[in-house]
Amino acid sequence: MGHWWERNIVEPGKLPLLLALAAFVLTFVVTRVITRLIRAGRGPFGNVKAGGLHIHHVVPGVLLTIGGGFGAVASDRHGAGGAIAAVVFGMGTGLVLDEFALILHLDDVYWTEEGRQSVEVVVLTAALVGLLLAGFSPFGVNDVTQQELQDRGGFLSTIAVNFLFSLVALAKGKARIAIFGAVVPLVALVGALRLARPGSPWARRFYGSRPRARARAALRAYRHDRRWARPRRVVQDWIGGKPDPRPARLPDRH
Q: What stretches pass through the bilayer (predicted)?
């Protein structure tokens, strides 16, 4: 284990990336726990206000991200400074992406249906960083044998092919499959071969003059969403908290 850690994490300079990922995930988890306690009126926590203004945690998140980012650029990735900057950057990114939906909508949608987008972005970001961390790159490793170089080259070739499949899946409107498909080869391949979602760039380009293909794509998307919407919502609620119910809409009076 020690040899693997030295060869694949420390020697290629991936320790700051690992620390940033750990700080990112831990900060998101702690932040969600605190916000859920505040929402439930439990614990010693409360919203931060200054002069009647609610200070969202994206504000310190931006400051930490800027400080950690510039610190990482100015530091040696093999030194203690780079490790500290990576932790600060990971913490800041966790705070910022936890309120990604607020930035996207320019509104306080944290506990609404739109607020689920923050959870999705955090999960996808963690998956992407985990993919970068897991890649057995031949660069930055000293004294690589010919066999090890071939193994690592083959691994990188597999990643490149999966990336192409993921791009096709992304063009077909399947963002989650595109992200996780870069890690799991069969997922990317299945996403690239199956029908595109209606309204995706692939569907607009290739289904425009094929009404049967458009109809099949719409039916498949409907069945998929109907089948997986509830399990996905359960997982999102477990991670980020259940959103507030939408207020009932009064009927229009003429």
A: 15-34, 54-73, 80-101, 121-141, 153-171, 177-196
- Count other C-beta atoms under 10 Å from residue 25's C-beta: 18
For 29-77, the pLDDT digits (tens) are 999 999 999 888 887 888 887 777 878 899 999 999 999 999 988 887 6
Instruction: Give the residue ranges of DSSP H helices in 75-145.
Output: 80-98, 100-105, 116-134
Dihedral sign, CA of 10, 149, 125, 127?
A: negative
* Chain centroid, CA 197 distance in Å: 21
Say yes or no to pLDDT of 96 above 90: yes
- Chain centroid offset of residue 157 CA: 24
**Position of tokens 């988890």?**
29
Sequence-distant (6+) residues with CB within 8 A of 106 are: none
Between 138 and 215, residue with greater pLDDT? 215
Q: What is the pTM of this model?
A: 0.72
Nearest to 110 by CA among 56, 190, 188, 55: 56
Q: Which two tokens stand for residue 192?
A: 């690239």
Question: Per residue in 115-132, pLDDT tens?
Answer: 888 888 898 888 878 877
With H, G, I as helix, E, B as strand and everything else as coil, classify residue 49.
strand
Cross-strand pairs, 50: 53
How many CA atoms within 13 Å lie on the side-chain side of 214? 11
Average pLDDT, the chain: 81
Burial of 91 (0-12, 13-18, 19+ CB in 10 A): buried
